[in-house]
C-alpha cells in the first residue's frame, strides 16, 4: 500500500453530495414502498375514514324526513309533492299509530275532510321538531291557497356554497391533512429513533456525508409521500360514489401541502430526538396527531368544539393547513388565501425545526 | 501472515497512534491511560472481557468520542472533532448491524458506497470478497448472522479505506460462521489494509492477529505478538496420554518430565523441555491418542490478572 493517492482514492475523498443525497433518498423510498405496515397507515387507514365518513354523510339531505300518510286531501298531496318529505302511505290511522309508537316512523299525518291530525314520537326531539315545522308549513300554505289570495311574502332560500357542495368537499381536505400529518410525523420520528438504535446514525457520522444531506433526503421522502397521498386521496374522492368536485385553483393546495409536511416533519424530528424506543415514539406521535386533527377541524367540523378550544387550535399547523386547503380546493379562492397559512406554517417549521436541531442526538 | 515491518521502531507514518487516553463516565473509568501504535498493514487486536474498555477505546480512535485527556493521530490527523477529509480513508464496522430498512444486500452496499462516491463495479467486487455474490438480491433482514456480519464488513470496505476498524465482528456467531469470517479478515489483510479489531475470543485473536493488546479495567495489561506473549509466560507444556497407556511411575522417570498427574481419563505430564520427552515417548511406542498442549493467551490473562478468563 502506498500513501500516494490513486485517482480513485481522490474521487472517493470528495464524493459529490448529490450522489449521497440521491442514494439516501432512494433507500428511503424503497424502505417506504416495501413496508406494508407503513403503506397501510399512509394510504388505507385514512382512506377508511374517508370512505366511512363519505358514505355516512354523503347522502345526507338527499333523502327527506319519512312521514306516514293516511287519507286524502290537499295537505296530503302537498306533502307527497314536497322534496323534504319521504311519505309512506298507510291504510289506517291505527296502523300508522302502531308504527310511530314502535319507532319505525317519526310521525304520521292523517287528513280526514278538513281535519288534519299529526302524531309524532317525542322520543326523537330533533325529528319531532322538524316534522312539526314541516307539516305546519304545508298546512299554512294549504290554508292560504284555500282563501284564493296570492301570498304577500315570498321566501327565497338557498345555500351559499356551490350547488354541488356535499360533505365530501369538507372531508377530503381534512382527512388529507390528517393523513399527511400521520405519515410525516411518524416517518420522521420513527426513522430517527430506529437509526439511532441500529447505529445507522453513528455509521453515517463516520461517512463523509453532511448532516444536512441526510436530513434533506428524509425530507424529500416525506414530501414525495405527501404528494402521493394527495393524488390518491383526491383521485378516490373524485370517484362518482363520493363525488368530490375541485374548484378552479385546486392545484394551489400542493404548495400548501408541502409546507404542511415541512412543519409535521419538524414535529417528528422533535419527537424522534426525545424518544428512545420506537414504541415510545409512535405513542407520542399519536398523542400529537390525533388531538391536533380533532381540534383543527380535520375530522370534525370546527363548530363542534368550544370557542376556547378553537382558539387553542390556532397553534397547530394542521388548523392552518386545513383552512388553506379548504379555501383553494372547495371554496374557490385564489392564491391570496394561501398567504396567511403559508406564513404560519413556515414560521412553525422554523421554530420547531430549530428546537429539534438543538436537541438532536446522534447517539442513544 | 505477513509480519509487519517496523512493529517496534514506529515510523512517523503510523496509521494509528493513541497516547495516554483517559475517558470516564461519571465515576467509572472506562479508559484509563491507554497508549498504542498500529503499524501499516498490521492486524491489531484489542482483547479483553466485556466491560474492559475495548469498544470505548475503539470509539475514541475512530473519532466518535473525545477523550478526557490524551491524544489520537489517525492517518496523521486528529479524528476529533469530526474530520470530513479523514472519513473516506477509514472503514468502520459497528457492533450493531447498521443497515437501512428493507434493502437487499446489494442495495445496502450501493447506498453506503454512494456516500463515498464509489461505482457499481466496486460493489460487485466487495460482495465477492465477503462471499455474498449469490446473496446480492436477498433482503438484509433475511441473511443469517454470519452473512449479515460479512455484509457489515463489506460496507466498511466498500470505499477501499486505508484502515479498518471492526468492533467484535465474530461475536454471537456459530463456529462455522466465525471461521468463514476469519477467511474474509485474512483476505482483507492480504490486500494491505491495516486492521484494528476488538474481540473477546482470545483463541481467535491468537490465530488472526499480528499483535494484540490485552485490556482489563480500562488499561492495557500486555501488548505484543500473541506467540511472544505466550512464550514470555514460560509456562509448562502439557503432554496428555490416555490413561493406562503408561504407568504413572514410569512417566515420572521420563527425561524432561516435571510433574505427572492422573485422572479418570488421562495422564498429564508437564514439561519445560518437550523435545526429549516426546522422543522418549515415541521410542516406547506410546504416541496413540497423545495430545500436546502449550500455553494460550488465556493462560497469559490468568497470569496477568490472577483470575480465569471469562468473556
From TrEMBL, chain A:
Main localization category: membrane
Protein name, as recorded: Transport permease protein
Family annotation (PROSITE patterns): ABC_TM2 (PS51012)
Entry similarity comment: Belongs to the ABC-2 integral membrane protein family.
Keywords: Antibiotic resistance, Cell membrane, Membrane, Transmembrane, Transmembrane helix, Transport
Record's bilayer topology term: Multi-pass membrane protein
InterPro entries: ABC-2_transporter, ABC2_TM, ABC2_TM_bact-type, ABC_2_transport
Cellular localisation: Cell membrane; Membrane
GO CC entries: ATP-binding cassette (ABC) transporter complex
The keyword Transmembrane helix appears for this protein: yes
Transmembrane segments: 39-57, 175-195, 219-244, 250-275, 287-309, 335-360
GO function term, MF aspect, one: ABC-type transporter activity
Domain ABC transmembrane type-2: 128-363
Pfam family, one: ABC2_membrane_3
Record bears the keyword RNA-binding: no
GO biological process: response to antibiotic
